[in-house]
Amino acid sequence: MKRTFLLFTLVAMFLLSCSTKANKIQNINEIENKIDVYIGGSFLNNEGEIVACYWKNGVRNEIDGLQVITLTVVDEKVYAAGRYEYDFSLEPPEAIYCYWIDGDPYELPGCTSVRNICVDNGKVYVVGMNGHMGRWVDEDTWEETHWEQGYWVNGIYQSPPKDSHILAIKEVNGVVYTSGYYSINETNYACYWINGIRKELPNSELFAAYGIEVINNNIYVAATNNNQGCYWVNGKQYILNNHDEKNIGFKSLTVFNDKVYFIGRYNYWINTKIHEIHDLPERTNNSSSRLTLGEYKFIDEKLYIVGSEWDERNSLVWYWVNGEFYYLNGYNATSIYLNNLINK
Q: Per the confidence metrics, is the pTM higher than 0.85?
């Protein structure tokens, strides 16, 4: 009896130790930084169906839909936007997009893709595409159709100014700031708008402004033209140092403690100084395996990246913090939000 009790005690202590260690790994960011980490994406249910979800500090929350593409958190409410379902009456079938408030879906009429979401004073703003660049009518015929990049406010679409496209949005105290580009004679110029009034940016030819932040009345706008990146602070341009000719891309713009963090596809910049991103997984030699990197965020000197890897039988979802992986039970991860620190 004593041996049985001793064995039971040792097993219980071991399991408790494993559970405590796993819990520390799962919530290390929350413990060390006093923040909550939200990841948006999808998972496979027991029937093998793709279901939208988000994770808060590693705990998965299911949402009625197919995939969370972007999310934010305000007053403990989770706002997200993404794919809700497919319309199979069309050929080929088309995704129907929506936004969610704590899991409740709301329509985005005409939406064919979403870029980002923000919330201010009870209004939900979703930036995305309205319409299609075109579609195949049959195997041999491509049909050009009308499309534009604008935004929805509580589900009501707002068209961009003529010959313009909106790529990012921020509302502060009732003032709506958007960024993107406008075109003259098929040449694009990065710009931003305040309540719909366009503000020019110097040396913006061939650039598109993918990010905008407003901190302490200072306006930050980030842009790329494939091989070159830059940002403006109150209209003053700063060119990013670039060590190669790779497509810089754009993942996110963050301003924290008066530092500007521009996150690209392969590198990130702090106040124009380039830093390489190390230790991300490489694509495997298995041709059936796929790797997808989602959103990047930089906060408190730490780089956060979400990603997914999958093949015919398995899927793996993770987020990466300065070289360390944190794994999640899911199918796909696209977005990340860091509560209590981001945007402060």
A: no
